[in-house]
Amino acid sequence: MKGASIALACRAFGVSETCFRCGAKRNNENEMIADLLLGLTNVHKSWGFGLCFMPLRNVKGHVCNHKRVHRISCELGLNLRIKPRRRLKRGKPEELAAPDAPNLIGSMDFMADRLADGRQSRLPNALDDFNCEGLGIEGDFALPAERVVRLLNPSLGKRSIGPFPDPPPHRMAREAIGNQGRQRPRTCQFHAEDLGREAGHRPDLHSARKPQQNAYVERYNRTVRHEWLDLYILETIEEAQDFATQWLWTYNNDRLNMGIGGITPAQKLKMAA
Q1: In angstroms, rounded to a whole number, what is the distance separating the alpha carbons of residues 36 and 146?
Q2: At what angle do helices 66-75 and 28-43 cross, to 10 degrees?
Q3: Cα(236)–Cα(139) distance, rounded to whole angstroms?
Q4: How far apart are alpha carbons 68 and 7 in whole angstroms?
Q5: Least confident stretch, 17-21, 44-48, 188-192
Q6: What is the mean pLDDT of residues 10-38?
Q7: How many whole angstroms separate alpha carbon 200 and alpha carbon 194?
């Protein structure tokens, strides 16, 4: 029907001419959701759909369907690329032991990075296993044991972990089996256990090259590296410490953690008070 009018074509196919000419109208609420998504991703460039959707529902109070928000996020090109990985069949992992209250059990680990001039820096990360709250990040080129003890010392007036209670029997059995070979402390990464006791902690050892035994802080290390450490080329230790301090406050007070039920570590700590 080349050259036919729209009215003739609509009558031929049995379609209403009004329906043919009617265009989809953009919903004002969709524009508001799009603006909020753009604002969140501009501030937090590493946040995907899940971390952006929870603040819309739990913080902003918008009652919107997750499929609708996901569609708008994809139309804006905000969805992160997920790198496919080969999945290996493994047995069911042992359930992580979680403390019943804050300040009972914590984890600590060291991270390494390089500045723009190639110098290597080290960052100790301390975490409370109860609410996954970051207790401190202190970076430098060299970290003597006294500075690490000071980071964990409860007498500084900061939130800190310890002293630890006696381990449950199942943990003692697992440690006894894993006592062969080199070990590293799980909660205080010191080579000398006396330094951990000096800070008021009982170091809990885990086997070397077994990150699953220290899962809380290993997952926290990934978040640190993904959300700020790999995003910037840092010139000085002072600049790295400023980034760490700002990010740590955001992590504890603004970033909703899916591992503790979609709330912030500060909210879970307040609920436990």
Answers
A1: 45
A2: 70
A3: 10
A4: 35
A5: 188-192
A6: 81
A7: 10
| Listed residue (264, 265, 244) closest to 102, CA to CA | 265
Q: Cβ distance 247 to 239 under 8 Å?
A: no
Sign of the Cα torsion 116, 112, 52, 56 reads negative
CA dihedral (197, 202, 204, 205) positive or negative = positive
- 163: cis peptide before it, omega within 30°? yes
Taking the model in full, what pTM does it have?
A: 0.65
What is the average pLDDT across 212-226?
Answer: 89
Most confident of 53-67, 73-87, 92-106, 226-240: 226-240
Report which of 96, 108, 219 is spatially closest to residue 162, judged by C-alpha positions.
108
Token pair listed for 224:
């640190």
List, as own/partner pairs, every contact residues 91-98 make where C-beta atoms lie below 8 angstroms and the sequence separation is at least 24, other chains included. 93/212, 96/215, 96/216, 97/168, 97/171, 98/129, 98/130
CA-to-CA dists, residue 147 to 137, 138, 198, 199, 228, angstroms: 12, 9, 12, 11, 23
| Strand, helix or coil for residue 115 | coil
Contact (CB, 8 A) for 123 and 242: no
Q: Which of 112, 106, 101, 206 is nearest to 153 (CA)?
A: 106
Could you report the per-residue pLDDT of 156-195, keeping only the tens digit for each?
444 544 433 333 333 322 333 333 334 444 333 334 344 4
3-class secondary structure, 126: strand
Q: What are phi and psi of 132, to 5 degrees?
A: 55, 35
Please list the residue range(s) of the chain that carry CATH number 3.30.420: 106-272
**3-class secondary structure, 173:** helix
Give the gyration radius of the chain's Cα atoms.
Answer: 26
φ, ψ (nearest 5 deg) of residue 199: -85, 0
Q: What angle do CA 40, 44, 259 make, to 5 degrees?
A: 95
Look up the CATH number of domain 106-272. 3.30.420
